[in-house]
Structures are given as C-alpha cells and as structure tokens.
Design a protein that fits this description.
By secondary structure, this protein is α+β, with helices and mostly antiparallel strands. It is built from five helices and six strands, in the order ααβαβαβββαβ.
Length: 180
C-alpha cells in the first residue's frame, strides 16, 4: 500500500485511449466499497464518458478543471446531505479510494475541487455541474476526478518528501521521532 501512495501523483495529461469497461466497473466497485459514517452511504457517483459533457465540465471552474477536456473519463462524486452531516467526509473518502484504485490499475487521476468554488461570477461550480448533469439540488457535489492512461510522468515521492515535522506524539508539539 505504501508503494501505491508513494507512486500516486496528480495526472492532468492523458492518452486518448478509452478506459476499458471492466476497469470502469472496478472503479465503481471501489467507490461503492468506500466506508461512510455509521454505514449510511450518502455518496453518489456519476461516470462521465461523453466527450461533449467532459468538455462542459472542463469549464466548471474558473481555474483547475480545464484538463478534463482531454480526459477520457471523469467521475463526479456527490452526496445526499440530507442523510448525514458528514457527507463531505464520506464523499472525500470515496474520492481518494477511486484515485488509489485508479493508480493500482495503471491509470492516472486528478481531483477537481468543487465545493466552495466558482464557475463564473454569480454561479458556483456546484450549480454549474448540477445544471450540466441534471443533478437534483438536494445532492451536494464534492469533486470531480479526471481519469485516464497517463501521458505524463511524474517522479515518485521519496522519504524526503514526508513532513515528519507535522506529526506529534501524545500532545501537540511533542516531536515525533521516526522511531516507530
């Protein structure tokens, strides 16, 4: 598992190759296996392969979503906020599981933050995506994940990339010594 975490990087350039149906099914299964608070499972997912829709989603944010126009697939992660107050945590957990599953299958991925972002003046990214994908207002959009076969290579993270200064033992500011 640590190897997967060291290897996973945000990939924004993809090969034009389509993702095979069995891989898409496995990504969906991974999403559906994600844990949620009290097992409520408020997460919902929209698998987007349509080129026109991907192009529309690529302008969902003022900055940070343009790469979706070159992605063969996106998964929009949303949740029913009426079911639980921890919907954003549940949706986030599912999103990262999708990304780790993608990496394990040789796919690249990148998260597009949606919640609390703007598409244009007067319209949020969430409102825009709700319109484009016909999502009921009661469902909250957490993020979009672009997916595809990588057309860029990024270096694996190393031990030097780990910020041990952000880890404490028993109390805040009690230095974590890498002795575990």
């Amino acid at each position: 598992m640590l190897d997967l975490l060291y290897e996973r990087r945000s990939i924004r350039k993809y090969s034009p190759s389509a993702i095979e149906k069995d891989r898409i099914q496995n990504l969906v299964k991974a999403a559906l296996l994600a844990p949620s608070g009290r097992g409520i499972q408020p997460q919902r997912f929209i698998v987007v392969e349509d080129r026109d829709l991907l192009q529309k989603l690529s302008v969902a944010r003022e900055h940070g979503s343009a790469f979706l126009s070159g992605a063969p697939l996106a998964i929009v992660v949303l949740a029913d906020s009426s079911l639980t107050d921890v919907w954003t945590e549940d949706a986030s957990i599912a999103a990262i599981i999708i990304q780790l599953a993608a990496k394990s299958m040789g796919l690249g991925s990148c998260w597009v933050q949606v919640r609390n972002r703007n598409q244009s003046e007067g319209k949020t990214t969430e409102e825009y995506i709700q319109e484009v994908l016909n999502i009921p207002r009661g469902l909250k959009v957490e993020c979009m994940i672009g997916l595809g076969y990588p057309a860029e290579q990024k270096l694996r993270r190393t031990e030097q990339d780990l910020h041990y200064q952000n880890v404490f033992v028993n109390q805040y500011r009690t230095e974590f010594l890498n002795e575990y």
